[in-house]
């Protein structure tokens, strides 16, 4: 209700596709611009990565397995994204402020 209708911004769920035709995992919640391609027999949509403004991963509990799953989903989105579009500076800054240390690289993560 708070989003201006003239902007054609929507809150939805579904998948993200890049220019090469690669897909993300299913996204719980994303803020997008414009119309997406409906996924048959669902209320979800496929959006081109250039239409995606923000991606939210929703978890009821913050258990290790769920956090690892969330990280892997977000990492997949990062991997299919265009390096020119993706700006990790904001995420790195937020992590640094909250955790008081630098954001680890994917290779540095120890997943048990």
UniProtKB/TrEMBL annotation:
Q: Which Pfam families match?
A: DUF6602 (PF20247)
Please give the InterPro entries that the UniProt record associates with this protein: DUF6602
Q: Which residues form the DUF6602 domain?
A: 8-78
Instruction: Tell me the protein's name.
Output: DUF6602 domain-containing protein
